[in-house]
Design goal:
By secondary structure, this protein is mostly helical. The protein folds into 2 domains: 1-83, no CATH class; 87-188, no CATH class. It is built from 9 helices and no strands. The chain has helices at 2-10, 16-38, 41-48, 51-59, 64-82, 85-88, 92-114, 126-153, 161-184. α2 (16-38) runs antiparallel to α3 (41-48) and α8 packs antiparallel against α9 (161-184). The chain is globular, with a radius of gyration of 17 Å. It starts with a helix and ends in an 11-residue tail after the last helix. The relative contact order is 0.15. Keywords: Membrane, Transmembrane, Transmembrane helix.
């Protein structure tokens, strides 16, 4: 499995979308490193949490369009926190939860598919249910992280009951959309190294 992850990571880009996704990945890495020296540690920590998803989307061989959307979405989600866009733009939080949870549910589906836990994506209705479960689980974990940050790190993190439930509903809807897509089309590239 490690060998396949590495093979997908080192695969040269073959399309403009591949190049764009790799450019977003490179920019994310540079900005995270720069943030260590220029931003408060909490902002660096938030930005750095995006890097695993940005790298994993390439390592598991997501289709190039989905790879690009994952990279942009995850880094925009983290950057929106640093730039305080969630407070400045009403509803932005729900949009980001919908899209970000959706792309992370796609990553979870591919990982669960490769591990033999669920039926392959692109066939059957199983991805719809599994994506919803993964999306709601990811949403719950994220909301617990927000609560922990608010309770023990800084009260600048906005946490209310309504916000938490709304975020989880938006995330669940994003995961449902990805589940429907995954039940009809493969989420991975045809030329990826199998995990």
């Amino acid at each position: 499995m490690i060998r396949a992850l590495y093979a997908n990571l080192k695969r040269p880009p073959r399309s403009a979308t591949d190049w764009l996704a790799d450019a977003v990945r490179a920019i994310a890495i540079v900005l995270v490193v720069l943030s260590l020296f220029t931003l408060p540690f909490t902002d660096f920590a938030v930005l750095s949490m995006s890097l695993p998803a940005v790298m994993l989307s390439r390592m598991i061989g997501l289709r190039s369009g989905l790879d690009l959307v994952t990279c942009v979405t995850v880094f925009v989600a983290a950057g929106s926190n640093v730039l305080e866009l969630y407070r400045a733009w009403t509803g932005w939080d729900l949009v980001v939860h919908l899209v970000c949870t959706g792309v992370l549910a796609a990553v979870a589906l591919v990982l669960l598919d490769d591990a033999g836990v669920v039926a392959p994506t692109g066939r059957r209705r199983t991805p719809i249910v599994v994506a919803m479960i993964a999306g709601l689980a990811l949403s719950a974990v994220w909301e617990m992280i927000e609560w922990f940050g608010y309770r023990f790190i800084t009260d600048a993190i906005f946490v209310t009951y309504d916000d938490t439930i709304g975020d989880m509903m938006a995330g669940g809807l994003g995961a449902l959309i990805v589940g429907v897509v995954a039940s009809r089309w493969r989420l991975t590239r045809d030329d990826r190294a199998p995990l």
